[in-house]
């Protein structure tokens, strides 16, 4: 019986004739389609771990970068101390082989260095103090000579009293005094910082030199035997190159100081011994510009005695520098630091760009150590005896030379000339 509605009429189907019932496309629980949909919507299991790992790496990099920038000063001090320990390693090892304890031998070496530096600073300070006192005492005479020259040249009537009063009541002098007073604290802070830095370098260098064998043993204990041999060989090369560089520079400083002392003493320049020590140390241990800095002070002192003496000092500095570059230095550094001058100059520039004055000082022994270490792993071959190796052209290559072609043009007779003569 057909279903009827409330009015007793037969209920009509709402769907049109011939259309099918709507199909429920929602995947049921437990069906394969439902599992595939849930798998596509769910986050992969490796993604949270990857995100945590990436964030951890970024945080570690930021923390390491911050710590490196904060510890840059300490790392540079440790680097200086390490090269200083390498430089004094031969002397310490020599004393230790004679029966002294390694710590006591290191103490003796540092004591000798401290006495030498203190003596040099004392002599240099006394020289500068004497020159400053002389300049202050002779300042009125200098001022009178300048005033007389100005009055005679420009026909003026300037008096020394007017100049002194103008200087004492000038705003420039007052501001300069205020700035100098304000900068006393900054200078004091820089001096204390420099002393603390020197103490840090000295302590680290002392420990590196005194505990050198223990440090090498500790470093080699975490490496396989093959790597241990390479590390020990690199360490030995670094000691030889750094120590050789220091000692060769010391010998050249001694020779340079004696030579300049003889010249200054012959010219009658005051403080000749101190100036000789100054020239020797500064010219040898400050790369590239040390020669010019070393020669400037003796020239200035000699100029106060006689302007012609300054010219003689300049000429001697230039001549001696050529003698040192082409005669003395190659013989002293051929076995210790045998690197090309262009390589040495480039290493000094690179070291200065990286670490400033410290990099310029340690650049040459560092490059010499690296060059000597890498030379053991570079296979070399015998060079053929070819003229082109020596910069000469091979005979017969490229046709006849210029002189040969000119000679042929001059002496070769034209082809038609014999016919004219025969006619």
TrEMBL record:
Bilayer-crossing regions: 50-68, 74-92, 104-129, 191-210, 246-264, 270-293, 300-323, 343-370
Keyword set includes Cell membrane: yes
Signal peptide region: none
Location(s), subcellular: Cell membrane
InterPro entries linked: AI-2E-like
Coiled-coil ranges from the UniProt annotation: none
Membrane topology value: Multi-pass membrane protein
BP GO annotations: transmembrane transport
Residue ranges with Basic and acidic residues bias: 1-10
A GO CC term assigned to this protein in UniProt: plasma membrane
Keyword terms, alphabetized: Cell membrane, Membrane, Transmembrane, Transmembrane helix, Transport
Region: Disordered, residue numbers: 1-36
Family under the similarity heading: Belongs to the autoinducer-2 exporter (AI-2E) (TC 2.A.86) family.
Protein name: AI-2E family transporter
Organism: Streptomyces fuscichromogenes
């Amino acid at each position: 019986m057909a279903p009827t509605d409330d009015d007793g009429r037969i209920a009509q189907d709402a769907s049109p004739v011939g259309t099918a019932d709507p199909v429920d496309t929602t995947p049921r629980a437990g069906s394969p389609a439902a599992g595939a949909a849930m798998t596509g919507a769910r986050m992969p299991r490796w993604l949270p771990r990857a995100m945590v790992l990436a964030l951890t790496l970024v945080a570690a990099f930021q923390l390491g970068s911050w710590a490196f920038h904060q510890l840059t000063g300490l790392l540079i001090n440790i680097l200086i101390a390490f090269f200083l320990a390498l430089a004094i390693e031969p002397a310490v090892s020599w004393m230790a082989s004679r029966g002294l304890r390694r710590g006591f031998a290191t103490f003796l070496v540092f004591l000798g260095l401290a006495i030498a530096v203190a003596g040099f600073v004392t002599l240099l300070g006394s020289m500068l103090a004497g020159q400053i006192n002389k300049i202050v005492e002779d300042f009125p005479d200098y001022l009178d000579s300048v005033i007389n020259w100005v009055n005679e040249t420009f026909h003026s009537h300037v008096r020394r009293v007017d100049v002194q009063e103008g200087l004492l009541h000038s705003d420039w002098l007052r501001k300069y005094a205020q700035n100098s007073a304000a900068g006393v604290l900054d200078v004091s802070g820089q001096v204390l910082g420099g002393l603390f830095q020197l103490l840090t370098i000295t302590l680290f260098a002392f420990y590196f030199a005194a505990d050198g064998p223990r440090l090498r043993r500790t470093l080699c204990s975490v490496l396989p035997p093959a790597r241990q041999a390479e590390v020990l060989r690199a360490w030995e090369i670094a000691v030889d190159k750094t120590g050789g560089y220091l000692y060769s520079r010391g010998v050249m400083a001694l020779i340079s100081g004696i030579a300049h002392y003889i010249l200054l003493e012959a010219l009658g320049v005051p403080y000749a011994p101190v100036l000789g020590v100054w020239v020797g140390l500064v010219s040898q241990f400050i790369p590239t510009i040390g020669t010019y800095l070393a020669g400037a002070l003796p020239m200035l002192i000699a100029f106060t005695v006689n302007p012609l003496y300054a010219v003689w000092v300049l000429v001697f500095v230039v001549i001696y520098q050529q003698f040192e570059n082409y005669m003395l230095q190659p013989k002293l550094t051929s076995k210790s630091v045998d690197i090309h001058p262009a390589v040495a100059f480039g290493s000094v520039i690179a070291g200065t760009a990286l670490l400033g004055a410290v990099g310029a000082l340690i650049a040459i022994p560092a490059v010499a150590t690296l060059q000597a270490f890498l030379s053991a792993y570079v296979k070399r071959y015998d060079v053929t005896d070819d003229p082109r190796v020596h910069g000469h052209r091979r005979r017969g290559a490229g046709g006849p030379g210029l002189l040969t072609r000119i000679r042929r043009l001059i002496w070769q007779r034209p082809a038609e000339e014999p016919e004219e003569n025969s006619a």
